[in-house]
Amino acid sequence: MENAAIIPIQAKMELLKLRLLYLITGLAGGLFNPYLTTLFVHQGLGADIVGVLMSVGTLLSILVQPVWGLLVDRYRQTKLVLILSISIPAILSYLYSLKLFIVIVVVYIVSIVFQATQSPIADSYAVSAARKGRTSYGTIRSLGSLGTALGGYAGGFYLSGFGITELWIPFLALSLAGAATVLSLSRSTERNAAALSLSQGFKELLGNRMFVMFLVACFFVNQTLTAYNSFFVLAFQDAGGSYSLVGTALLLASLTNIPSMLLAARILRRIGHERTLLLAAFFYAMRWGIQWLFPVPAVMVGVQVLHGLSFGLFYVAAVEYVANASGKKMQATGQSIFNMVFSGLGGIVGNLLNGYLYHAGGAQVMYLACTVSALIGAGMLYWINRIAKLSPRL
C-alpha cells in the first residue's frame, strides 16, 4: 500500500519536471534561435553563406544522431547526454559575439552536433513519463510551444534594449536552468528512455515496412513546413504585408500549437493515431492551398490558425505513433529515426526545393508544390490507415 501511494507522487513529480524542462528549453530556443541568422549577418556573414551554413548544420544533425545513439548505448548515460545537448551550445553562444568568421562557424557546427540529440531524447523521456503518469505526451510538449511563443516575444523585447551580441546572456541562463532540471530527473525515467541498443533498434524498426511507409509519408508532409519556417516572411512581404503583421502571424502560429497539443490525447483516443495523422496532413494541404489561391496579407495571417491543427496535431500524433511502433525498449531509437526524417531530411530537402521554387516561380509556385506534397503524404497515410483497419482481421 505504501509503494502504491509513493509511485503516483513520483510520477507527478517527473511530469512536473519534464513540463518545466520543455517550458524552459522552449523559452531559451524561442528567445535565441529566430535571431541567429540576424546575428550572423550582423557579425559580417553574407546571407548566402548563412544559408549554406544552416543547410550544412541540418545535414550534420542527421549524420551525428546515430553516433550519439551508439555512445548512449555503450555508456548508458542518457541523462548526461541530454544535459550536454542543452548546456554546451548555451556556453559556446558567448563566442558568437566575437566578430571572427572561423570562430562563428566552428561554434555553430559544435552546437549543432550537441543539439541534434536533444529533441529525440527529451521526447523519449516525455512519452515514458506521460504513460507512467497516465496523461498524454501532448500535455508535456505543449509547454515547449508556449515557451517558444513567449521566448520569441521576449527576445524582441530584450533586443529593444540590448544589442544582438548580448542575446547569449538570457539564452545561457535559461539553458543552464533547463540542464539543472534534467539533473533532477530520476534514474528510473532514464532507464525507461534508453533500454535497447540503438543499432539493434535501427535494424528492427527499418525492417518494419509500415514504419518505413509512415516515415516516407512524414517526409512528404513535413518538408512543406519550410515554406513557413524559412520563406513565410519573404512571401508575406512580397504580398504587401508589414513587419508588424509578420510578428502577429508568427505569434498566432506558435500559440495555436498549445490547444492542439492539449486536445491531441482526446482526438487520438477517439479516432486513433492513423486517422489523426491523416486529418493533420489534410490541414497541411489546406494551409498551403489557401495561401496559393489567396495571396493576401490578411488571409496569410488568418491561415496561421491552421498551424496548430497541421504541425501541432501531426507532431504529437507522430511521436506517439512512433512510441507505439517502437515499444518500451526502443523509445529513444524510434524518436531518433523519426527526428532524422521529419526534421532533418525534411528540413534539408524542403529548404532546397522550396528555395528553388520560390526563386524560380515565386511564392505561389512554392505553395502549390507544398499542397501537392502534403496531399501525397496524406495519400500514403490513408493507405496506412486502411492497413491498420484490416490488420486485426489478418
Number of DSSP-assigned strands: 0
Number of helices: 18
**Global morphology:** globular
Low-confidence stretches: 1-7
The helix content, as a percent range, equals: over 70%
C-alpha termini separation: 42 Å
Strand content: under 5%
Radius of gyration: 20 Å
* SS-based class: mainly alpha
Largest sheet: none
The SSE string, one letter per element, is HHHHHHHHHHHHHHHHHH
What is the averaged pLDDT score?
83
Account of the protein in words:
The chain has 394 residues and is mainly alpha-helical. Helix content is 84%, strand content 0%. The chain has helices spanning 2-32, 36-42, 47-75, 78-92, 101-115, 118-132, 137-159, 168-183, 187-193, 198-206, 209-222, 226-229, 232-238, 243-293, 297-302, 306-326, 331-361, 363-390. The radius of gyration is 20 Å and the shape is globular. Residues 1-7 have low confidence and may be disordered.
Layout of helices and strands:
Elements: H1 2-32, H2 36-42, H3 47-75, H4 78-92, H5 101-115, H6 118-132, H7 137-159, H8 168-183, H9 187-193, H10 198-206, H11 209-222, H12 226-229, H13 232-238, H14 243-293, H15 297-302, H16 306-326, H17 331-361, H18 363-390
Helix pairs in contact: 1-6, 1-7, 1-8, 3-5, 3-17, 4-5, 4-8, 6-7, 6-9, 6-17, 7-14, 10-17, 11-17, 11-18, 14-16, 14-18, 16-17, 17-18
Produce a short descriptive summary.
This protein has 18 helices and no strands. It is an all-alpha fold and 394 residues long. The chain is globular.
